Amino acid sequence: MMRSLFAGVAGLKTHQVKMDVIGNNIANVNTVGYKSQSINFSELMYQTTQAASGPNPENGRAGQNAKQIGLGVQSAAITTNIELQGSSQNTGNAFDLRISGNNFFVVNGGDGNKFTRDGSFYVDAAGNLAMSSNGYNVMGWQTDKNGDIVQDNVSKLQILSEANMTSPPQLTSRATMNGIIDKNDPQVLGDGRVINLQIYDNLGYSYTARFRMIGTDKEGAYSLELDKLLDSNNEDVSGKYEASIFTGSAVDPNASTPVAKAKSYGLADGWQLQQNGTITRQNADGSTTTRSPQDTGTEQVDGKDVNKLDLYAQAWGFDSYNDMKTQMVYTQGSGTDPVATPLTTILANGGDYTDPDGNAANIFNVASKTLNVDGYIKSGGTSLIVNYDQLSGSLRGINGNNQSFYLAIKPTDESADNPFNMKNAQGDDMGKPGIKVDMSNTTNVNNERKSTISGVSGDDQGFGTGWAVGSMTGVSIQPDGKIFGAYDNGQTKLLGQIATAQFSNPAGLEKTSDNLYQATLNSGKFDGIGVDVSSDGGSMSTGVLEMSNVDLSAEFTSLITTQRGFQANSRIITVSDTLLEELVNLKR
After folding, report:
1. Of 352, 374, 396, which one is at a domain's C-terminal end?
2. Is residue 54 part of a domain?
3. d(CA 538, CA 142)
4. Domain contains 136
5. DSSP 8-state symbol, 491
6. Are 285 and 360 contained in the same domain?
7. Same domain for 451 and 499?
8. Angle at 253 between CA 248 and CA 256, to 5 degrees
9. What is the mean predicted confidence (pLDDT) over 35-59?
10. Same domain for 219 and 241
11. Candidate from 21-35, 262-276, 419-433 with smallest mean pLDDT
12. Which pLDDT band, with edges at 50, 70 and 90, does 283 fall under?
């Protein structure tokens, strides 16, 4: 009878533990990210009063089973139903996140990394992403100087840091002119069709380059003139900056064959390059003026003696022959380390040079190749001639067969800093002479005497647009956990990425309160880096929280069975007590 008493006590205790588990589940029915628990029972132990025996052929007796009396019940395991996804609750808060799959957010409150399914986050006064319930910092990966995510040891995500509140300015490096030039447009026939092009300098200040497209006496030929440069207040800044437009040809570092014939890129109007390095121009009286890179001595110009080589360079658009030598560099060979020679040296030698293999060559004798010039040849003017094909209306060329031109801006004070020095956002020299303006999409067709040509910063892919400093207007979190800042200059910036943790046995995690888990020997270790939530098909949803996965109908059913089990065990104690009482009464 004493055994039945203790069996009943064990039953009461285990059912009380089960009631505790059920009570905790019901209490957390509305807890964000809570995972329900269940308990299993097992037999406690047995007292064997007679061991089992096998068949005995000698006496003919059969074997007998063991005689065992059970001593009650015990709690076998309390299991967390961690893989069952909870239902979703919409909150509208951009920092509330619901994570799918078996991933966990990684958080840290100064006592090591912990893990949670509770995605109720906010941004604290320091700009850190943190848990709303306890202030633990949300951990993730940072970006490098190029703006790419570096998957290294997780650290707190300071998404609203001072550096992230603004987007740095960027210089305009490319632009495009699109639209129609109608030859009968009164503006084109008069003072010219005005084309405004908005650009930005390195500091994010806005300027407007104003052009005019003016018709000429030649059919299909128009003069593109740079009228003025205006600042953001619409004030002419020609006294502070000198602006010019020119065409040029850039080096091709992958050219495998030395160049062939020279193009007359950069030559002032009327000058033509000859195949001996000289340049010629037909004068109005029918005579021809010739200038050569081999000229010596001086020539009278406006009553002054001017070096003939400088006159040769000025016909190309340079200030001096020395300036021309430094800018016109002829590149031979292929790869990333081509051989460079001043083009003036080759021109002065009639086009003869020695190639990288030591062979004699001439730039005018190799068929169907193009002269490559490292840098761009400045024509130093404020006007270009734009020609259109009169059969198709398409652009034939600008000062030759160029489809684009360059807008260069420099301070009139040569000692002053130039905010148009073509540095990119990382401060690297981009090696460009100015803003490249593509005109290939302009046409010269009838449009009822109305021209539609206009200018826009950036190429046809949207690159090189340039922009002013931007202030942050919002933050968004992508399904893969990447956090982007949006700015009022139209730019976005990758601020970081929320990392997640995965475990080989997530049910082996230990609950520590505050909706947190910590790793155990049976859950597997966290490597300190984590994983991308999308690596196994998981994702994060914004404005949504994962609620508790407690099933109330199942919990209430368990309440009934647990109550009945408790009652039954209590009856065991009551009946055993009655039997003991009867035994004691035998003495009376």
Report:
1. 374
2. no
3. 21
4. yes
5. -
6. yes
7. no
8. 115
9. 87
10. yes
11. 419-433
12. confident
Asked if 355 and 386 sit in the same domain, the reply is: no
Structural domain total, the chain:
4
What is the torsional sign of CA 77, 83, 84, 89?
A: positive
Measure the CA angle with vertex 199, ends 195 and 201; round to 5°. Answer: 150
Residue 416 inside a domain? The answer is yes
What single letter denotes the amino acid at residue 336? T
pLDDT digits (tens, 9 = 90+) for 336-389: 455 667 778 887 887 777 766 677 777 665 443 444 444 444 444 688 889 999
Tokens at residue 404, please? 């684009």
Same domain, 237 and 306: no
| Structural domain boundaries enclosing 288 | 271-374
pTM of the model: 0.66
64 bridge partner residues: 53
Closest CA to 539 of 575, 573, 498: 498
Q: Where are the beta strands (DSSP E) in 96-220?
A: 97-99, 104-108, 113-116, 121-123, 129-131, 137-143, 149-156, 166-167, 174-180, 193-200, 206-215
Classify strands 241-246 and 404-411 as parallel, antiparallel or unpaired: antiparallel
Closest CA to 103 of 502, 582, 577, 549: 502
* pLDDT tens figures, 170-191: 889 899 999 999 999 999 999 9
Residue 474 lies in a domain: no
Alpha-carbon distances of 401 from 115, 154, 247, 264, 386, rounded to whole Å: 64, 55, 10, 10, 9
Q: What is the pLDDT of residue 415?
A: 77
Higher pLDDT residue, 256 or 244? 244
| 24-38, 74-88, 394-408, 427-441: least confidently modelled range | 427-441
Same domain for 286 and 363: yes
Distance CA 188, CA 194 (A): 9
Q: Are residues 98 and 78 both part of a single domain?
A: no
Residue 533 sits in the same domain as residue 552: no
